[in-house]
Design brief:
By secondary structure, the protein is α+β, with helices and mostly antiparallel strands. Helix content is about 30%, strand content about 20%. It has ten helices and 17 strands.
Length: about 425
């Protein structure tokens, strides 16, 4: 590999070593101290590379500017990535492993734990035969979601700084905390960021380009039963756990995550605990279609209302909170930015794969806050667990796409 590719790999491996797992139970912002420490280190690195207006604010947002290297009235483009890692799996003491010239066979990640990256289970591995992969050591996640995105953005900016022949306009960067727990956009200042549009570099495999995602809501059901001695319970007991089972049985089984794909939405039961006297359920409600999303929420309301009427007391207290919405509604009026990313990929020799995100992204919330923000691949595969890996060539291509976007913006006219 040449020098900048070596820097890209070493930069990502260095970033991966920092413990930045977000904490959903914390009420601080960022939610974990390691995130703020990393934000400060990252800001120092950006300053050392020569970027301007570098700041790591009290909320952990790291912003920076690469000034235009030519005159022109072009849009200001932004690139955004998050530095927290998922609390779903261990994210401390991450030790990435380089697998050079992958031979198409099994990769032993952790012998003692029997953790194997096997193409029989993960057939996508075979797409990368002959390439260099970065894997976990089997005991942690890797953190390519989204430290690969940060490494790719920073490396692209470093290349632009040292490549005056690549004409570009003003570029704004932001690296955010707590995306993995849905808080990454909570204190983001769109006006301060000052971009006309942006791209999150937070997608998966090579070529992914996304500008639509789920509408999302979180539902909590607090169930109050009636606990009576089972020997004298006839006509009196209401078992809160069985009420929870009734709720589950009244939701369509075909609309569970394990039975859905593509644009199909779902109800996802993420927590259930309790006793005869009381129980608690948490559901994630997801759908790309706004009408179907509304209908899913209404069905849950109807179920709770119906059961309360059946039991003749408020057995179920239901709370539904919207989390984010499909960015497509905000991207469609400015679809040219999707075309910009598609053209940049083709110039980089990458086949664009426009897909719908079966999840959420900070880009969705940014888009609804007034900053149109599609999502672009990092190259990572199998996020949030020990089987996570990323091909180096996919990271290289992500850098090249960022470079092409930066240049192609100078062929656009600033709107308004």
């Amino acid at each position: 590999m040449d020098t900048w590719k070596d820097k890209l790999v070493s930069r990502f491996i260095r970033y991966a070593g920092y413990h930045t797992t977000s904490d959903p139970k914390s009420d601080t912002f960022p939610s974990s101290p390691g995130q703020m420490k990393f934000a400060i280190i990252l800001a120092q690195e950006l300053e050392s590379l020569g970027l301007c207006e570098v700041e790591a604010d009290i909320n952990g947002y790291v912003m920076a500017t690469l000034p235009a290297n030519a005159s022109g009235k072009w849009p200001v483009v932004g690139f955004i990535a998050h530095y927290d890692t998922s609390p779903d799996f261990r994210g401390d003491h991450v030790k990435p492993v380089l697998v050079e010239n992958y031979n198409g066979g099994k990769i032993m990640l952790h012998k003692a734990g029997g953790i194997v990256l096997d193409p029989a289970e993960f057939p996508e591995l075979l797409h990368y035969t002959g390439q260099t992969l970065i894997t976990t050591d089997g005991t942690t996640l890797l953190g390519a979601d989204d430290k690969a995105g940060i490494a790719e953005i920073v490396t692209a900016m470093e290349r632009l700084i040292h490549s005056p022949g690549i004409r570009h306009g003003k570029i704004r960067l932001c690296f955010t905390p707590d995306e993995e727990i849905g808080r990454g956009a909570d204190r983001f200042d769109v006006k301060k960021f000052g971009a006309d549009f942006a791209f999150t570099i937070d997608g998966g495999e090579l070529g992914e380009l996304e500008y639509e995602n789920f509408n999302a809501a979180h539902a909590t059901l607090q169930i109050k039963g009636k606990s009576v001695h089972p020997g004298a319970a006839k006509g009196k007991m209401v078992n809160a756990l069985l009420v929870a089972h009734r709720v589950i049985s009244m939701l369509p089984p075909a609309q569970r995550p394990e039975s859905t794909e593509n644009h199909e939405g779902f109800y996802h039961l993420v927590e259930l605990n309790g006793t005869v006297a009381e129980a608690r359920m948490e559901y994630l409600i997801r759908d790309h279609d706004a009408d179907k999303f509304r209908q899913k929420k209404e069905l849950l309301v109807q179920i709770a209302t119906g059961l309360n009427a059946e039991f003749r007391y408020p057995a179920i207290k239901l709370e539904i909170r919207d989390q984010y919405y499909n960015m497509r509604e905000k991207i469609e009026p400015v679809k040219y930015i999707v075309d910009l990313a598609r053209n940049a990929m083709m110039e980089a020799g990458v086949e664009p794969k426009i897909i719908a995100i079966r999840g959420g992204t900070d880009g969705a919330r940014f888009s609804w806050m007034g900053l149109p923000c599609p999502n672009i691949f990092t190259g990572g595969i199998n996020f949030h667990g020990p089987y996570e890996f990323i091909p180096v060539i996919s990271m290289v291509k992500a850098v090249e796409v960022i470079l092409h976007i930066s240049h192609l913006v100078t062929k656009m006219k600033k709107k308004g």
